[in-house]
Structure formats: C-alpha cells, structure tokens
Amino acid sequence: MGDDDPDRIDEDNVQCDCLFFRKYYLPCRHIFLADRTYEILTEDHWNDFVVMFANRGFDVAAPVCNSHGHEPSREGDRGDIGAPTRRALTLKKTLERLRSRYYELEEDSDPDQRENLMNLWLGSLQRASADFLTEEGTTCIINAERERRETGGEE
User: Fold this and answer.
1) Gap between the Cα atoms of 48 and 119, Å rounded
2) Which UniProt keywords apply (predicted)?
C-alpha cells in the first residue's frame, strides 16, 4: 500500500497508522486524502478531533463574543489559573512529550537496539512512577516527606 493511498485509513474510526496521527491524534494528510476521495469525515469525526485536541490542553473552539462585541474573559486569560489547572496542564505536556519521544524512538532508533532501549526506558518510567500509582504508595511518600521535615531534613 503506497504512502499516499487513501485506502490505508480505518474509515470506521477515522484513524491512520502514520507517525503524525499516532503522535498527535489529529487528521493527517492520509485522512485528508481519504476524505477528499471518499468523503469520510463527518461532523461527529471533527467533534472527536476537537475533544482529542482539547484534552491535550489546547483551546480549539471559535471565540464567542458577547453583545458588546468583546470576547468574554476566560479562566487563565490573566495568568490566574489555579494550581490544579497548572498541574493538569503540566501533566498533559509531560505525557505528550513522553508519547512524542516514544514514537520518535520507535521510528528512528537502530532496529537491533530498539527492543532493549524501549524496555530500559519503559522499565525506568514504571519504577519512577510505581509509588504514585497506588494509594498506599502515595501515603507512604507523604508520610516519609512529613517525617523528613519534622526531623529537620528540610533544606
């Protein structure tokens, strides 16, 4: 199947197996070609892409103006987003960077070393995150930090 073959698209889910789509979950040139050829994109598909894009921290909705012709203020316009929102955005950015790097390594690393490299990286991520993936582990971390502060270990 050629790289620009519109038949490479999964028309039921409007997905592609190319690096761009796997990396960004946004329509790629293959999807646009398939749409131009077979008219596969519906309003529901576009809404799904908007949701996927919005879930990565981007605002894709057209600005809505009030009766005075001004765009209404939104949380964050004045840099006043709260800590939970900042943390959620930081998490999204970090996950997106990890996902992007994962696909770059899958695509660009030496095939003879790829399996070992990916296993080392994924194992390292799992070990680094293990304590935070359970409530017991998180409680243990909080208690250890509290004890460190109480014994004067704070720097």
Assistant:
1) 32
2) Metal-binding, Zinc, Zinc-finger
Query: What's the pTM value of the predicted model, to 2 decimals?
Result: 0.45
Both structure tokens of 36? 């131009």
Of 133 and 154, the structure prediction assigns the larger pLDDT to 133
Give the H or E element holding residue 94: helix 83-108
DSSP 133: S
Q: Angle at which helices 111-129 and 83-108 pack, to 10 degrees?
A: 160
53: which residues sit within 8 A by CB, 6+ positions away? 25, 26, 60
Residue 20 is given by DSSP the state H
The residues pairing with 15 across neighbouring beta strands, listed in sequence order, are: 10
87-125 pLDDT tens trace: 888 888 888 889 889 988 988 999 999 999 999 999 999
Contacts of 98 (CB under 8 A, 6+ apart): 125
CA distances from 39 to 5, 6, 42, 88, 154 (A): 15, 11, 8, 36, 62
CA-based Rg of the chain, rounded to a whole angstrom? 22
CA end-to-end span of the chain, whole Å?
A: 60
